[in-house]
Specification:
The protein is of the alpha+beta class. It starts with a helix and ends in a 13-residue tail after the last strand. The C terminus is likely disordered.
Length: about 375
């Protein structure tokens, strides 16, 4: 499946936020440790020329933008689908390039602070390297590389820890919503009104049409069994979900044989797409019940599913009440809002439920979600 551009942009923004938040804090801690270390060297040996804390402060301030950019480059290199050797080489290049800026930044900082003696001493070691100067430059670069590695490690570690925490919370929400959806589906199907109507219809048919009554009992029992089975699974194929919906609609069609009918148009590739179990049941029930209750004529429910790039789109249309001119657009009820909340919990901004009236007396409920691969069926949260 090709990467989703919106998800990639969201991930990039998340990394930038983490780097801009934690890299400066870590860099400040590194600066304080560096100053204490250099001051300790200065006190221990008066012969060693050490840049004062003011120059170090300016040096670290000058290096901070480079640190942010280096961390972002390192994250991009590490997350790419490249061979391990190339990723390691890329990380080393970024670390060395950043660390090599330490001495030039110190010269610039000393000049800014008008500490010309310090600036001249560091500049000479860069422009006319001696054996001692090269050793100092290598030591300085290695120390700065270690500082960079510490900051990068802190940023990646904290970001990963927070993501794992968010993932645990998201999974807990998904599991809670799945249980809620299962209970909601059972409640919808077994509420006294629905149960009474089905049983009353069966009783009225026992003498006059015993075969039809027997068929309704069988369909009703099968429907409840399927709800219990599918409710224990987080994801099912759309084809499986539609089989369950067919059983529900067929029972309703037996109750209203002269009024209710349905059909469906499922595009190639949509039937095998994975959807959250029982996610469509409240939407179909909404179409059937509101169609029958708010419309006097025949009620035809149509179910369509199409695949657009990395998105699965399911549309359910039904006739209903004709709103007067100027009437505001219809708003989703409790059942549709519950489905919308479940999709948002599962997929974030990529999951949605919308209800609109393209023409007077016809309502269309549209469900959008990512086109899921079979690998998420085990219960993993899809990206």
């Amino acid at each position: 499946m090709p990467p989703d551009p919106a998800a990639a942009r969201a991930a990039a923004r998340s990394w930038w936020r983490a780097i801009l938040t934690f890299a400066p804090l870590c860099w400040l801690c590194v600066f304080l440790i560096e100053v204490m270390n250099m001051e300790a060297w200065r006190i221990a040996s008066a012969d060693i020329q050490v840049a004062p804390p003011s120059s170090r402060a300016v040096q670290f301030a000058l290096l901070l933008p480079a640190l942010v950019i280096a961390c972002r480059l390192a994250v991009g290199i590490g997350s790419g689908a490249r061979p391990a050797g190339l990723r390691i080489a890329g990380q080393l290049i970024v670390a060395i390039a950043f660390s090599a800026l330490a001495r030039p930044a110190l010269v610039t900082a000393a000049l800014i602070m008008q500490q010309r003696e310090i600036a001249a001493g560091v500049a000479i070691s860069l422009l006319s390297p001696t054996r001692e100067g090269i050793a100092v430059w290598i030591a300085s670069t290695a120390a700065m590389a270690l500082n960079y590695a510490v900051c990068l490690g802190v940023v990646v570690g904290v970001k990963t820890y927070r993501d794992l925490g968010s993932e645990r919370v998201a999974r807990a929400n998904v599991e809670r919503e799945a249980v809620h959806a299962r209970l909601q589906a059972l409640t919808n199907q077994l509420n006294p009104h629905f149960l009474f109507n089905v049983l009353n219809t069966i009783v009225s048919l026992i003498e006059s049409q015993p075969r039809l009554a027997q068929t309704m009992v069988t369909r009703f029992a099968d429907l409840l069994r399927r709800i219990l089975n599918d409710g224990a699974t987080q994801y099912v194929s759309l084809a499986r979900e539609l089989e369950l919906l067919e059983q529900y609609i067929e029972i309703q069609e037996m109750r209203f044989p002269q009024r209710l009918s349905h059909d469906r148009g499922i595009a190639t590739g949509a039937a095998e797409a994975l959807v959250p179990a029982l996610v469509m049941q409240p939407i179909i029930e909404n179409a059937v019940v509101h169609g029958l209750r708010k419309h006097d004529g025949p009620v035809h429910v149509r179910i369509e599913a199409v695949v657009a790039a990395t998105t699965l789109e399911i549309r359910v249309s039904n006739p209903g009440w004709i709103a007067p001119a100027g009437q505001p657009a219809p708003t989703p009820g409790v059942g549709l809002r519950n489905v919308a909340e479940r999709l948002r919990t599962l997929f974030g901004d990529r999951g949605s439920v919308t209800l609109h009236m393209p023409e007077p007396g016809r309502y269309v409920t549209t469900v959008r979600m990512p086109l899921l691969e079979r690998s998420v069926a085990s219960g993993a949260r899809p990206a």
